[in-house]
Specification:
Chain lengths: 529, 144
């Protein structure tokens, strides 16, 4: 099979370099279009260049002789080209009959290679058996067209993209912004003074602005139109100024001010931080308990235990740490709805399905939460245990957030308070106007006291077992069966310590004083300590 | 001396007949070890001097190979026990190439056909600087 070098990984990995000619051609392309290009567009352009150069070389070589095909006849003195041997050219010096009972009659050509110090090699000709070098063999020859360029680029994209980036980085004439490249000389001048206008515009907007809005503010349109060159120039200027940072994706750039970044997105709120001491080894958990890992929505549970969800919306139960921090958990099912942002901070607009109001939130990928929902929880008085739904929209940075509203009713719910420096639980009537998980719902009285207790537990390093021993009798007394469901224990323990279901189940199952009753219920027998 | 390029799992290998000639090793006496009982008695003197012209299935190059090659390939290799499980890995690979007329194979393909060891272990065995029984990467062109 005559595979061209450009069709092989070896060529792009070991032989290909971005040449001066390719750089010059790209320079001219930028001058002609006046627009920036993504690295993949440059990659395709360079592949096209390489294929054209290869074809030119092949055409020149083909003029020097006949293409070698194993089934054809040749004469002494014929110049042969061997495409499968890097287009080596040789001369037939002699011909003799070949002998191999398996292959029938054929000829042997003795070929001299002038380019290789007149070395000789023997090749078969008039060969009738099946062979990939036969002229009738169907081969995948490149056509050098657009599909061929895309096919090659698609196959070796990773290698080629890295070579392209390297080649352009070594050249001062090119400048990049994320994965877009442009000519330095074609950048539109954005003076320092204009950046102060950008600063003020974002400040007044009290939220991020996209590059088109900023260009309009700066009046950088060309004949009333916003060009890609203007977008690139402004993005490039802002990217290199520490006052600004992109809180959108590479495709949907949104600029914001560093000084307005909420502290809750720089470091995770303390309620969300899991103690390093809380280890969890799924192997140690009895099989019938692992089922409960998937029944409790917690972003810290290993993804393999969590339930899958639709790729358009996800519903989950709000727990105390997120309710208190004004955050949403980024469960694996939530993550699959969100744009991929390589750990960078991202702002999302969450649309309140009740009012249509847009809420500016921050997706903190690093710590698995979305911050900015405190006022929304407060507005609707949503308790711990509320079912929250997040839905995708056509805009990758906009989502609908909702709860299932119901007619406001006075209902008996567990209410947590602090008494004698310990959590205490009582059943109280509360006005509830949303759908909720009965096992996880919690009302709260005295947030400051709960916060103080959390800090005390954290400061003293109170073991999980001690907290469970304190909390269990409180929960058991509210139950008619003297048993507590694991979801209720999870909901309660997370009021004073961030504890995912894994370590919680592990702790319960290793102490004989906690007795597994089946169907998710546990009871407490102090005598069995 | 050719530059050593470390082979990978996707590198195709074959028996390089030039290696046997260059090293002065006797391919014929090694081939005799692979001859089955039915033909062992015939091997001498009938097959003493004859060679066949073996055509490389990839490059079309022709090599004069002892006729034993043809005998082993066309007759002995048809025996289901031609590559027994207790044969050394290098000898098994050599027999595999006789059976497939020296069509180049990757370590993964060898593993698939031999059902022995792992592709990585096969690569480690034949992909080092030491060449066993002429089994080398099939990438070098004319007069390696």
């Amino acid at each position: 099979m005559n595979q061209r070098p450009t069709q092989t990984l070896d060529f792009w990995q070991s032989k290909y370099q971005v040449t001066d000619q390719a750089i010059e051609a790209l320079y001219n392309k930028f001058l002609e279009s006046g627009e920036p290009a993504f690295v993949d567009e440059v990659g395709l352009f360079f592949v096209q260049q390489a294929i054209e150069a290869e074809e030119q070389a092949i055409r020149a070589e083909l003029q020097q002789g006949k293409i070698y095909h194993i089934d054809l006849s040749y004469e002494v003195g014929d110049q042969l080209i061997f495409p499968h041997l890097d287009y080596l050219i040789g001369t037939v010096a002699s011909i003799k009959p070949g002998y191999n009972p398996s292959d029938g009659d054929f000829s042997i050509l003795e070929v001299t290679f002038d380019d290789r110090n007149h070395t000789t090699a023997k090749f078969a000709a008039d060969f009738r058996s099946h062979h990939i070098l036969s002229s009738t063999y169907e081969e995948e020859a490149g056509d050098g067209g657009a599909s061929e360029v895309q096919k090659i680029y698609g196959k070796y994209q990773r290698v080629i993209r890295s070579k392209v980036t390297q080649g352009l980085q070594q050249n001062d004439e090119f400048v990049h912004c994320d994965s877009q490249w442009f000519l330095t000389d074609l950048l539109i001048d954005v003076p320092v003074g204009l950046l102060n206008i950008v600063d003020a515009a974002i400040d007044i907007n009290a939220g991020p602005l996209n590059v088109d809005a900023l260009i309009e503010q700066l009046e950088l349109q060309k004949n009333g139109k916003i060009t890609d060159a203007a977008r690139f120039s402004v993005n490039h200027r802002l990217e290199n100024d520490p006052r600004f940072f992109n809180v959108g994706t590479e495709q949907h750039v949104l600029w914001y001010l560093d000084r307005l970044k909420p502290p809750q997105v720089i470091a995770a709120p303390h309620n969300l931080v899991v103690d390093d001491q809380l280890s969890f080894d799924p192997i140690t958990l009895p099989g019938d308990l692992t089922v409960f890992l998937s029944e409790i929505d917690d972003e810290n549970t290993p993804p393999e235990f969590l339930k899958s969800a639709s790729d358009k919306e996800v519903t989950f139960v709000l727990n105390y740490p997120h309710r208190r921090s004004g955050t949403l958990p980024v469960l694996p099912a939530v993550r699959q709805l969100l744009p991929d942002n390589n750990d960078a901070l991202l702002t999302l607009q969450l649309i309140d399905s009740q009012s249509g109001e847009k809420i500016l939130t921050w997706y903190v990928d690093q710590y698995n939460y979305i911050y900015g929902l405190g006022d929304w929880y407060q507005k609707y008085q949503l308790p711990v245990g509320t079912f929250i739904t997040l839905k995708k929209t056509d805009d990758p940075l906009e989502f609908i957030v909702e709860f299932a509203p119901q007619r406001t009713r006075q209902e008996w719910v567990r209410v947590v308070t602090v008494r004698n420096n310990q959590l205490a639980f009582q059943m109280r009537k509360r006005a509830i106007s949303c759908s909720y998980d009965e096992l996880m719902i919690l009302g709260e009285e005295g947030s400051e006291a709960v916060d103080a207790l959390w800090k005390k537990v954290e400061r003293n390093g109170t073991p999980l077992y001690t907290l469970l021993v304190n909390i269990f009798p409180e929960l058991v007394k509210l139950s008619s069966q003297s048993a507590v469901h694991i979801k209720t224990v999870y909901s309660a323990i997370n009021v004073v310590k961030r504890c995912p279901p894994g370590p919680l189940l592990q702790e319960l199952s290793k102490h004989p004083s906690f007795v597994w009753m089946g169907h998710g219920y546990w009871t407490y027998k102090p005598s069995a300590k | 001396m050719a530059k050593y390029v470390k082979p990978t799992k996707t590198t195709k290998f074959h028996i390089d007949f030039n290696w046997w000639a260059q090293k002065g090793h006797n391919l014929r006496s090694y081939l005799l070890e692979h001859l089955c009982d039915d033909y062992r008695d015939l091997a001498e003197p009938d097959l003493e001097t004859r060679t066949i012209d073996w055509v490389d299935p990839d490059t079309g190059q022709v090599f004069a190979v002892d006729r034993l090659w043809h005998t082993i390939r066309s007759h002995c290799s048809q025996n289901p026990d031609f590559i027994p499980g207790n044969l050394t890995l290098t000898a098994s690979i050599f027999r595999l190439f006789i059976a497939n007329n020296n069509t180049p194979l990757t370590p993964a393909e060898m593993h698939q056909q031999l059902k022995r060891k792992t592709p990585i272990l096969i690569l480690r065995t034949i992909g080092g600087r030491t060449v066993y029984k002429g089994v080398r990467p099939a990438t070098a062109p004319v007069n390696k």
